[in-house]
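ok trying again, last paste got cut off:
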Amino acid sequence: MSAWENYADRASRHTVVGELLRWPGFHSPQLNNQRDVLVWLPASYRSSQRRYPVLYMHDGQNLFDAETSYVGEWQVDETLLRLGAEGREAIIVGLPNQGDDRVYEYDPYPPDIFVPEGGRGDRYLDFLIETVKPLIDGSFRTLPDQPHTGIAGSSMGGLISLYALLTRPEVFSFCGAFSPAFWFGSFGLESTIAERARGEGRLYMDVGGREGHVFMGRPGLWTGSEAEADATYLDGVRRLRTGLLAAGYREPDTLLYIEEAEVLHREDAWARRLPDALRYLLPG
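nice, full thing came through this time. structure:
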Protein backbone atom coordinates (compact mmCIF):
# COMPACT_ATOMS: atom_id res chain seq x y z
CA MET A 1 0.00 0.00 0.00
CA SER A 2 1.31 3.44 -0.92
CA ALA A 3 2.60 5.64 1.87
CA TRP A 4 3.08 8.79 -0.20
CA GLU A 5 1.84 11.91 1.56
CA ASN A 6 1.82 15.59 0.71
CA TYR A 7 4.84 17.18 2.35
CA ALA A 8 2.99 20.39 3.22
CA ASP A 9 0.29 18.48 5.10
CA ARG A 10 2.77 17.43 7.81
CA ALA A 11 4.93 20.57 7.92
CA SER A 12 3.76 23.36 10.19
CA ARG A 13 6.25 25.70 8.51
CA HIS A 14 8.00 25.20 5.19
CA THR A 15 9.32 27.06 2.14
CA VAL A 16 8.35 24.47 -0.50
CA VAL A 17 6.77 25.61 -3.75
CA GLY A 18 5.06 23.22 -6.13
CA GLU A 19 4.11 19.64 -5.28
CA LEU A 20 6.46 17.80 -2.96
CA LEU A 21 5.57 14.31 -1.77
CA ARG A 22 7.14 12.29 1.03
CA TRP A 23 7.31 8.60 1.89
CA PRO A 24 8.19 8.69 5.60
CA GLY A 25 10.58 6.22 7.17
CA PHE A 26 11.37 4.26 4.01
CA HIS A 27 13.48 1.22 4.91
CA SER A 28 16.83 0.38 3.33
CA PRO A 29 17.62 -3.35 3.46
CA GLN A 30 21.12 -2.61 2.13
CA LEU A 31 21.98 -0.20 4.97
CA ASN A 32 19.55 -1.44 7.63
CA ASN A 33 18.20 2.04 8.35
CA GLN A 34 15.34 4.24 7.23
CA ARG A 35 14.78 7.75 5.96
CA ASP A 36 12.10 9.79 4.23
CA VAL A 37 12.07 9.77 0.44
CA LEU A 38 11.12 13.13 -1.11
CA VAL A 39 9.72 13.52 -4.63
CA TRP A 40 9.12 16.87 -6.34
CA LEU A 41 6.78 16.71 -9.33
CA PRO A 42 6.90 19.07 -12.32
CA ALA A 43 4.17 21.67 -12.67
CA SER A 44 2.73 19.88 -15.72
CA TYR A 45 2.62 16.44 -14.07
CA ARG A 46 -1.05 16.46 -12.99
CA SER A 47 -2.35 17.97 -16.22
CA SER A 48 -0.60 15.68 -18.69
CA GLN A 49 0.19 12.05 -19.36
CA ARG A 50 3.85 12.74 -20.09
CA ARG A 51 6.73 10.75 -18.69
CA TYR A 52 9.68 12.60 -17.18
CA PRO A 53 13.41 12.18 -16.65
CA VAL A 54 14.46 11.64 -13.04
CA LEU A 55 17.29 13.27 -11.12
CA TYR A 56 18.29 11.64 -7.82
CA MET A 57 19.85 14.08 -5.34
CA HIS A 58 21.59 13.59 -1.99
CA ASP A 59 21.24 15.61 1.24
CA GLY A 60 17.51 15.76 0.57
CA GLN A 61 16.71 17.91 3.62
CA ASN A 62 18.69 20.76 2.03
CA LEU A 63 17.02 20.75 -1.38
CA PHE A 64 13.50 22.18 -1.02
CA ASP A 65 12.80 23.49 2.47
CA ALA A 66 14.77 26.11 4.40
CA GLU A 67 13.11 24.89 7.61
CA THR A 68 14.87 21.51 7.41
CA SER A 69 18.12 22.62 5.77
CA TYR A 70 21.57 22.78 7.31
CA VAL A 71 22.53 26.35 6.38
CA GLY A 72 20.06 27.20 3.63
CA GLU A 73 18.27 25.33 0.85
CA TRP A 74 19.24 24.71 -2.75
CA GLN A 75 15.89 26.07 -4.00
CA VAL A 76 15.53 23.09 -6.30
CA ASP A 77 11.76 23.58 -6.42
CA GLU A 78 11.91 27.27 -7.37
CA THR A 79 14.62 26.55 -9.94
CA LEU A 80 12.69 23.73 -11.61
CA LEU A 81 9.56 25.85 -11.83
CA ARG A 82 11.56 28.48 -13.73
CA LEU A 83 13.21 25.88 -15.95
CA GLY A 84 9.84 24.30 -16.63
CA ALA A 85 8.82 27.51 -18.34
CA GLU A 86 11.85 26.99 -20.60
CA GLY A 87 10.74 23.46 -21.47
CA ARG A 88 13.08 21.64 -19.08
CA GLU A 89 11.17 19.45 -16.64
CA ALA A 90 12.16 16.53 -14.42
CA ILE A 91 11.06 14.58 -11.39
CA ILE A 92 13.48 15.25 -8.54
CA VAL A 93 14.05 12.60 -5.89
CA GLY A 94 15.69 13.81 -2.68
CA LEU A 95 17.28 11.34 -0.28
CA PRO A 96 17.99 12.95 3.11
CA ASN A 97 21.34 12.13 4.67
CA GLN A 98 21.68 10.14 7.88
CA GLY A 99 23.40 12.76 10.03
CA ASP A 100 26.57 11.34 11.54
CA ASP A 101 26.40 8.40 9.12
CA ARG A 102 26.51 10.72 6.11
CA VAL A 103 30.28 10.45 5.79
CA TYR A 104 30.06 6.65 5.63
CA GLU A 105 27.17 6.47 3.16
CA TYR A 106 28.68 8.92 0.70
CA ASP A 107 32.20 7.43 0.82
CA PRO A 108 32.65 4.37 -1.45
CA TYR A 109 36.31 3.80 -0.60
CA PRO A 110 38.31 1.58 1.80
CA PRO A 111 39.50 2.94 5.17
CA ASP A 112 41.69 6.02 5.26
CA ILE A 113 42.50 8.80 7.73
CA PHE A 114 39.16 10.50 7.10
CA VAL A 115 36.95 7.40 7.39
CA PRO A 116 38.94 4.83 9.41
CA GLU A 117 36.16 2.24 9.21
CA GLY A 118 35.79 2.56 5.45
CA GLY A 119 32.79 3.81 3.55
CA ARG A 120 29.45 2.23 2.67
CA GLY A 121 29.01 4.15 -0.56
CA ASP A 122 28.46 1.09 -2.75
CA ARG A 123 25.73 -0.15 -0.43
CA TYR A 124 24.15 3.31 -0.51
CA LEU A 125 24.12 3.21 -4.32
CA ASP A 126 22.65 -0.31 -4.19
CA PHE A 127 19.88 1.11 -2.00
CA LEU A 128 19.23 3.91 -4.47
CA ILE A 129 19.31 1.68 -7.55
CA GLU A 130 17.75 -1.56 -6.28
CA THR A 131 15.20 -0.20 -3.79
CA VAL A 132 14.46 3.50 -4.31
CA LYS A 133 14.49 3.58 -8.11
CA PRO A 134 11.95 0.74 -8.49
CA LEU A 135 9.72 2.57 -5.98
CA ILE A 136 9.92 5.80 -7.98
CA ASP A 137 9.43 4.12 -11.37
CA GLY A 138 6.47 2.17 -10.00
CA SER A 139 4.81 5.20 -8.40
CA PHE A 140 5.26 7.95 -10.99
CA ARG A 141 5.34 8.46 -14.74
CA THR A 142 9.09 8.32 -15.18
CA LEU A 143 11.35 7.72 -18.13
CA PRO A 144 13.16 4.89 -16.32
CA ASP A 145 15.88 4.15 -18.86
CA GLN A 146 19.53 5.15 -18.54
CA PRO A 147 19.42 8.15 -20.92
CA HIS A 148 16.85 9.83 -18.68
CA THR A 149 18.30 9.02 -15.24
CA GLY A 150 20.74 11.30 -13.43
CA ILE A 151 22.36 11.85 -10.05
CA ALA A 152 23.66 14.98 -8.32
CA GLY A 153 25.00 16.32 -5.06
CA SER A 154 27.57 18.54 -3.39
CA SER A 155 30.77 17.93 -1.44
CA MET A 156 30.58 14.27 -0.42
CA GLY A 157 27.33 14.16 -2.39
CA GLY A 158 29.37 15.33 -5.37
CA LEU A 159 31.88 12.57 -4.71
CA ILE A 160 29.29 9.77 -4.62
CA SER A 161 27.49 11.23 -7.66
CA LEU A 162 30.61 11.25 -9.83
CA TYR A 163 31.53 7.80 -8.54
CA ALA A 164 28.04 6.57 -9.47
CA LEU A 165 28.26 7.92 -13.01
CA LEU A 166 31.60 6.20 -13.54
CA THR A 167 30.85 2.86 -11.85
CA ARG A 168 27.14 2.46 -12.66
CA PRO A 169 27.01 3.75 -16.26
CA GLU A 170 24.23 1.30 -17.08
CA VAL A 171 21.96 3.26 -14.70
CA PHE A 172 23.03 6.93 -14.90
CA SER A 173 23.69 9.02 -17.99
CA PHE A 174 24.11 12.46 -16.41
CA CYS A 175 25.63 13.79 -13.23
CA GLY A 176 26.03 17.01 -11.27
CA ALA A 177 29.15 17.00 -9.05
CA PHE A 178 29.12 20.27 -7.10
CA SER A 179 32.36 20.95 -5.20
CA PRO A 180 33.22 17.23 -5.04
CA ALA A 181 35.10 16.08 -1.93
CA PHE A 182 38.04 14.67 -3.84
CA TRP A 183 40.29 13.70 -0.91
CA PHE A 184 38.40 10.71 0.51
CA GLY A 185 39.77 7.23 -0.05
CA SER A 186 43.30 8.59 -0.45
CA PHE A 187 42.16 10.66 -3.44
CA GLY A 188 40.06 7.75 -4.62
CA LEU A 189 38.13 9.71 -7.25
CA GLU A 190 41.32 10.29 -9.20
CA SER A 191 41.92 6.54 -9.29
CA THR A 192 38.29 5.84 -10.22
CA ILE A 193 38.51 8.31 -13.09
CA ALA A 194 41.75 6.74 -14.34
CA GLU A 195 40.32 3.21 -14.10
CA ARG A 196 36.66 3.65 -15.07
CA ALA A 197 36.07 6.87 -17.04
CA ARG A 198 35.43 6.39 -20.75
CA GLY A 199 34.01 9.78 -21.66
CA GLU A 200 30.46 8.44 -21.33
CA GLY A 201 27.47 10.40 -20.12
CA ARG A 202 27.06 14.11 -19.51
CA LEU A 203 28.78 15.69 -16.54
CA TYR A 204 28.57 19.05 -14.77
CA MET A 205 31.30 19.79 -12.21
CA ASP A 206 32.15 22.98 -10.33
CA VAL A 207 34.17 24.46 -7.48
CA GLY A 208 34.47 27.75 -5.64
CA GLY A 209 37.66 29.68 -5.05
CA ARG A 210 37.34 29.82 -1.25
CA GLU A 211 36.24 26.35 -0.24
CA GLY A 212 39.29 25.50 1.85
CA HIS A 213 37.50 26.45 5.07
CA VAL A 214 36.13 22.89 5.17
CA PHE A 215 39.68 21.74 5.98
CA MET A 216 40.22 24.19 8.83
CA GLY A 217 39.88 23.32 12.50
CA ARG A 218 40.53 19.61 11.99
CA PRO A 219 43.47 18.67 14.23
CA GLY A 220 45.85 16.27 12.57
CA LEU A 221 44.28 16.76 9.14
CA TRP A 222 45.27 20.32 8.23
CA THR A 223 47.97 22.61 9.54
CA GLY A 224 48.30 25.20 6.78
CA SER A 225 46.71 28.60 6.29
CA GLU A 226 43.21 29.16 4.94
CA ALA A 227 44.65 30.58 1.72
CA GLU A 228 46.65 27.38 1.28
CA ALA A 229 43.52 25.36 2.02
CA ASP A 230 41.59 27.29 -0.66
CA ALA A 231 44.34 26.55 -3.17
CA THR A 232 44.38 22.87 -2.19
CA TYR A 233 40.62 22.49 -2.71
CA LEU A 234 40.74 24.25 -6.06
CA ASP A 235 43.73 22.23 -7.22
CA GLY A 236 42.07 18.95 -6.21
CA VAL A 237 38.96 19.57 -8.30
CA ARG A 238 41.09 20.81 -11.17
CA ARG A 239 42.93 17.47 -11.12
CA LEU A 240 39.59 15.68 -11.44
CA ARG A 241 38.82 17.80 -14.48
CA THR A 242 42.22 17.01 -16.02
CA GLY A 243 41.64 13.30 -15.48
CA LEU A 244 38.18 13.45 -17.03
CA LEU A 245 39.46 15.24 -20.11
CA ALA A 246 42.26 12.70 -20.47
CA ALA A 247 39.64 9.93 -20.26
CA GLY A 248 37.64 11.27 -23.19
CA TYR A 249 35.24 13.88 -21.82
CA ARG A 250 35.00 16.96 -24.04
CA GLU A 251 34.25 20.53 -23.06
CA PRO A 252 31.54 21.67 -23.46
CA ASP A 253 29.96 18.69 -25.23
CA THR A 254 30.07 16.13 -22.41
CA LEU A 255 31.67 18.13 -19.58
CA LEU A 256 30.74 21.57 -18.27
CA TYR A 257 33.28 22.74 -15.69
CA ILE A 258 32.74 25.95 -13.71
CA GLU A 259 34.97 27.82 -11.26
CA GLU A 260 33.43 30.62 -9.22
CA ALA A 261 36.03 32.83 -7.51
CA GLU A 262 35.65 34.09 -3.93
CA VAL A 263 32.86 31.61 -3.19
CA LEU A 264 32.55 29.40 -0.11
CA HIS A 265 31.58 25.75 0.31
CA ARG A 266 27.90 26.01 1.19
CA GLU A 267 24.32 25.72 -0.01
CA ASP A 268 23.78 29.27 -1.27
CA ALA A 269 26.67 28.86 -3.71
CA TRP A 270 25.31 25.58 -5.06
CA ALA A 271 21.81 27.08 -5.30
CA ARG A 272 23.20 29.93 -7.39
CA ARG A 273 25.00 27.56 -9.78
CA LEU A 274 22.13 25.05 -9.96
CA PRO A 275 20.07 26.67 -12.76
CA ASP A 276 22.90 26.61 -15.31
CA ALA A 277 23.88 23.11 -14.21
CA LEU A 278 20.36 21.82 -14.85
CA ARG A 279 20.10 23.70 -18.14
CA TYR A 280 23.17 21.75 -19.19
CA LEU A 281 22.07 18.37 -17.88
CA LEU A 282 18.33 18.26 -18.60
CA PRO A 283 16.92 17.96 -22.10
CA GLY A 284 15.16 21.05 -23.40
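cool. The chain has eight helices and nine strands. The CA atoms of residues 111 and 234 lie 24 Å apart.
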